[in-house]
Amino acid sequence: MYKNYILDKDYFIQVVKDLAVMAEVERDYLTKLDSLIGDSDHGINLSIGFREVTKKLPEWENENITAFFKKVGMTLLGKVGGAAGPLYGGFFMKLGEPANNKEEVDFGEFCNMIKNGVEAVESRGKAIIADKTMVDTFRPALDALMAAVEAGQQPLDAFDKCVKAGEIGRDSTIPLIAKKGRALRLGERAIGHMDPGSASSYMILNIFYENMKKRF
Ligand code: ADP
Ligand code: MG
Fold this sequence. Notes:
- It is a single chain.
- By secondary structure, the protein is an all-alpha fold.
- The protein is built from 9 helices and 2 strands.
- The protein has one domain (6-213): Alpha Horseshoe (Serine Threonine Protein Phosphatase 5, Tetratricopeptide repeat).
- It has helices at 9-25, 27-37, 42-56, 65-79, 84-95, 107-125, 135-150, 155-172, 196-213, and strands spanning 6-8, 104-106.
- α1 (9-25) crosses α9 (196-213).
- It is globular, with a radius of gyration of 16 Å.
């Protein structure tokens, strides 16, 4: 059904380059969010990780999509400390698996990639919706994407729903008490602040979307 909507290696390389730009541009904002309910390092962590990814990127240009994301994920895992390193490391390592060592995927296969990545975050971190984590962005975004695919919607419509559901999920973290991560210790003092990981995961999904708009 989505056979005419192809995302190739160049698309994914551009996404990763844009993620690295995002990590610099949003570094202070994400760190400020983390200063309110965490330990003031979320933006710094992502910046450290994606600087290393950027450094190694030229070595990976001939890898297939599966191997490429495995290397992106392993680099983040190796370089980024804290909770976000293993979680985003796992996300990217698993993201490429459904691409089955190919150089390009269609939109249906791409949705399975997102599913695999989000499920990796959930199985690693064991967070569920309303725990005030990045899962509050990722899970509703994935559910909206899969529902739109099930309904046979066009890729850009389906991914628009995905990103919008992620945005609502991100904002839903503001009034919550945290059940996972460092913010747990704050109890009610976490109320009124957006979870930093829910903010960065929204940005990540949006970068996939913005690049898709240039292709489809
Ligand atoms: P740390 O909390 O170790 O300083 P970061 O500041 O880089 O690491 O990342 C914090 C973010 O990680 C939180 O905002 C939250 O979204 C996410 N997070 C923390 N624990 C979990 C978990 N168990 N499952 C999913 N996400 C989590
Ligand atoms: Mg932190």
